[in-house]
Amino acid sequence: MEITRITSEKVSLRRSIEAGTDEQRNVVKSVINEVRANGDEALLTFTEKFDRVRLTNLLVEEEEIEAAYKELDDEMIAIIRDAAENIRFFHEKQKRESWFVFKEDGTMLGQKITALDAVGVYVPGGTAAYPSSVLMNVIPAQVAGVKRIVITSPPNTSGTLPAGVLVAANELGIKEIYKSGGAQAVAALAYGTETIQAVDKIVGPGNIYVALAKREVFGVVDIDMIAGPSEIVVLADESARANEVAADLLSQAEHDKLASSILVTTSIELAEQVKLEVEKQLKTLPREEIARPSIEEHGHIYVTENLAAAVSVVNELAPEHLEVLTKDPMSLLDKLKHAGAIFLGRYSSEPVGDYFAGPNHVLPTNGTARFSSPLNVDDFTKKSSIISYSEQAFNENAGKIAKFARLEGLEAHARALEERFK
């Protein structure tokens, strides 16, 4: 990892969003059109082509759920249940209620909160299994009151889904679990097929083809976000321990060769120690072939003159995950403006949030924490404004409203009000 000294508090370090190539975009559009035209047949064809398995049925059967429980030991199942309880507890705190106010002139105004009817959750496959993605995407939707939740995930070459994914989904009571991945699964969720009924919103991470497909179908359905490669920033002073910082940086580097792991510190000594420790730990990491290019190409260490400058750098990065390993992390909280999730102190290592603590691990990436938030209960609801004018309120205000309409040149608007005086 390269070490850079920063003398200015204002720097621009944001990475560009992975937008995909023209070839990838064309592939995605072709896949979506094929699914729209041929439904299940296209899904099965693409599953055989991309996942190298021939299926006859897309829906996960009860026998597959039973087999999944036999694969996991009782302790692991209990851990999944504990994590689900923590995640549900946190998201219950986010619930909003409809509200109404009544004014003296008889006007009633309000906001009606309504859960979405149907949500599709994409659970990635590929190099790892992600039961945590099931928990993090499904639970806030359930808390919001969504009645129909569908899971799609790419099958392995045996035609099954990972045991952890199936157990997590079953623990949450999900009955619609489909063995389909990639852009074709996104298309199925957006437009529907003979087997998969269309949904109103698609959430969940995936590879570049999934991200491009979500972008393509946005407008037909809603989506959560276009997530880029995972990223972590560790803000540390001389009190941090190099081996722990290195381990936390590598926890994100092992996700993806494009993942970004950055240390921002006031201590050149810590910077040098972390650089050595990262190399040491890389050599024994099972996913070194993924983590090493991530560290070498997207990892970095920035050394600042003081903590204020370090905070400025962090805010400029607006990271997905931010760990604060300083003597007094809480004292910096109000100064840290832009981060998807903030982990305070030595014992709040990033994986604590990834799996178990309760806050959502679906977070804004690529600097978008400047203006967006983690996945939450609000993402699975919509709001309707309620307006009820009394005769008194109408008589008092219709003239003002008509004049406002004519200011904008909208005569029919004005007349719609004045007709009620005839």
From TrEMBL:
E.C. numbers: 1.1.1.23
Family matches, as CDD domains: Histidinol_dh
Binding, Zn(2+): Q252, H255, D354, H413
Single Gene Ontology MF annotation: histidinol dehydrogenase activity
Record carries keyword Phosphoprotein: no
Organism: Metabacillus fastidiosus
Lineage: Bacteria, Bacillati, Bacillota, Bacilli, Bacillales
Binding site for substrate: S230, Q252, H255, H321, D354, E408, H413
Pathway per the UniProt entry: Amino-acid biosynthesis; L-histidine biosynthesis; L-histidine from 5-phospho-alpha-D-ribose 1-diphosphate: step 9/9
Cofactor descriptive note: Binds 1 zinc ion per subunit.
Purpose of the protein: Catalyzes the sequential NAD-dependent oxidations of L-histidinol to L-histidinaldehyde and then to L-histidine.
Keywords: Amino-acid biosynthesis, Histidine biosynthesis, Metal-binding, NAD, Oxidoreductase, Zinc
Residues of the active site: E320 (proton acceptor), H321 (proton acceptor)
Protein name as annotated: Histidinol dehydrogenase
Any Pfam family matching the protein: Histidinol_dh
Catalytic activity: L-histidinol + 2 NAD(+) + H2O = L-histidine + 2 NADH + 3 H(+)
